[in-house]
Amino acid sequence: MKHLTSYIFLIIAFLLLGVNGAAAQEKDCPFKVAVVGDNTDISYDNKVLSIRSSDKVTITGDGSLTDWGIEIESRGRLVVTIEDLNIEREGVPLKIKRRVNFSIIIEGTNRFVSKGSSGTAGIEVESSISLRGGGSLTAIGANGDGKTPGGAGIGGDGGSLIIEGGIIHAEGGAGAPGIGSDGTSLIIQGGIIHAKGGAGAPGIGVSDPKKDMTIQIFGGTVTAIGKNTAPGIDGGASSNYPSIAGNAFVIAIDGTDDKGENPATTQINNHTNGLFILGQQQPDNSIVWDSSALVGDVTLESNAEIPDWAEVTIADGQTFTIADGITLVNNGTLTNNGAFTNNGTLSGTVAGVGSLNIGGKEGFDVFNTDGGATFSYNGTEEVLTISRSGYVLIRGRNKDKAVGCGIVIEQSASIRLTLEDLNIKADKAFVYGDESPGVSRGYSLVLQGTNRLTSINGPGMNLYIEVNFRGTGSLTVTGGNGHAGIKAPSLSFFLENNVFVVAIGGKDAASGIEIRNKFYHNRGLFIHGTQEDDGSFSEQYSKLVGSDFTLGGDAEIPDGATVTIDEGQTFTIDAGVTLTNNGTIENNGIIRNKGTLKGKPVEGTGKLYNVITFNANYSASPVLVEKDFLQGDALPSDIFTRSGYTFQGWYDAPDGGTKVETVTEPQTLYARWKAVPVPEPDPEPAPTIYYTVTLPFVEGAATDPVAGDYDVESWSTFRFYLTLDSAYSESQPIVTTDRGETLVPRTSDGAYLVKYVRTDVEVYIDGIEKNNPVANEPIRTAAPEPEIWSEDACLCIRLPEGLPTSPVRIFTAEGRLLDSFRSTPGLNRRQLPTGIYIVQVGATVRKVAIL
């Protein structure tokens, strides 16, 4: 019994020791674990935090170094966030156990370093995981030595890895890649990845070249460095991979032997888009450029750097874009023969004959219109340099947004430069030549739209050679303190152009212009002066030259400046152009305003016309018509005519809009038309309808017209005559129709009328009998006749025996057929209403009263 009690106490002690030990390990764990969900198991054993979960789990450290490890096993849709973890240990710092795929979100700064000597990885992946987030992750495998292989930075047996974001640095030990393992797969879609292999291993890929690994790079910035004859990227025996596509930016550096020879070259088996740079690392760790391939149009979506040993060319027809918020550092050579667009930040220089975008969506574009010039943009100093000779267009994207990039045209360059809607504010906004050795050439500057050049230190335009202004646009040039707006040996305004130029010297400047030789003003409007301490403008010169001037770009007359339009001069503000008058306009000539004139009122004795453009506003309308009107003039109504329409007035929109009757401002007006009503055509006459009237053939009588069928127009009257033969002259004809009517001859001419024919009508003629015999005619026994009488409100008809059946017709006294039937030998009875009737039985006719 004592022994049994001792065993029980011993078991309880061990159990308590285990519980207290686990509690102690949980207390000592340097990580904080937060779980959202209810399907998570957490354990602490041998300084390893083990998590089995399908929830949202966050593991947070404080950045302090620890030798605790972490093991994660997914039960389902697990999402793990790691933040500020710093682990160095003999075993595996972070192990992803084989189970269901899941995601790791990288936040803060994280380090996983294996100090073991048995090939342990910094992060061991047995399952399929994806890495993403905005933080950084460093994974370093065990070093290994000549006898024991090192471990991969990120690797494992049978797992697959998808990198979607984050900054990832992975280093492998001896014989192990930075990222990769035999028989696994890697997909890179984003992020910044730097992978370095150990001795004899690639930066990304297999450790055994006879094995295969699927490597697909669709995006992000990837640098892979192989060591000691290993390639930077190695897919091993795979025939289709590695592949590069999308907007990937990939650098592979192949290792060489100790003599700098026999490199194992990275083989990209499928490169459909993106940039690939290949170099070779020498024994002294220097790198020699091998090749670069830019395929397709590429937008850089992750921060990247072109190394100082590399050369990259944007070919003619290609576009390379730095996305908004992205930085490209160019320490090498970047040649642009295609189109370079910088919506982000460029540090370094890009040169070439291709078009450039500087300053992004609100910056400006530089075009080499004939291919002769060369551009070089230093993103660090923010200076665009134009060299050689040719036609160049610099076009701003937002004329109201200044770009901090200066423009320099080399001394020996021969450039015909066009500025369009360009707005620059820089240390030195515009410099042509620098008095360096070289042949100085005449310089032509064409202005289009609205342009502003402002220098902070120096003249707004520092021209070491003669400049000739041309074009129809405007330019305002402002120098820094103590500097003129324009500095040049000589200045010319060409006769055939309409430039509007304002040169403003900075505070304490002697003048708005600094001209060492001659000043020619043969055409256009030129104003120059200086800026006072209070910022106001002090005019030194203002003159409009030429009889007909058209302003082609928005411009501003400074406060303190006076522009005089002399008698005989016409000043036109073009459509879509705004002139802001902050100074004084003395108009003694004509102003034609097709655009917008705002600011202070115009003074002087001249006329200010608003130009109205009239649009006929129908598909086949004639050309537009422009006419000048004074303020308040009534609008004409006879500009256009349109056949079949009446003019309804002028409106400020093609459809709808407001009716305009007097001139208040320059605008385009649209005619409104109303169709003239077309009279309704007379309706087609209804077709004539005919009906058939049938006249019978009667023995002893003749009809006129003769017996037959006759077409009679609907609702008309059919007329016929009846003439008895002499042998039948004593007959009393009874003429009826199948409409039930009895026809009576007209007293005037004896005609019978069938009125209002609206159906087919058949006429019956009865009562035609031969006259009784007279004189010497032989007397024959009278044929038996039917007996006809009334009795007890009935009509009675008796046919003698031997008489055939006869038709019977009963007519009212008005001649309307009341009934008809065939009689049979013997007595026939018909009950009739009280009245007088005419009864016809065969050839016998009697009048009968029914009482």
TrEMBL record:
<protein>
    <recommendedName>
        <fullName>Bacterial repeat domain-containing protein</fullName>
    </recommendedName>
</protein>
<feature type="signal peptide">
    <location>
        <begin position="1"/>
        <end position="24"/>
    </location>
</feature>
<dbReference type="Pfam" id="PF09479">
    <property type="entry name" value="Flg_new"/>
</dbReference>
<dbReference type="InterPro" id="IPR042229">
    <property type="entry name" value="Listeria/Bacterioides_rpt_sf"/>
</dbReference>
<keyword id="KW-0732">Signal</keyword>
<dbReference type="InterPro" id="IPR013378">
    <property type="entry name" value="InlB-like_B-rpt"/>
</dbReference>
<dbReference type="GO" id="GO:0030313">
    <property type="term" value="C:cell envelope"/>
</dbReference>
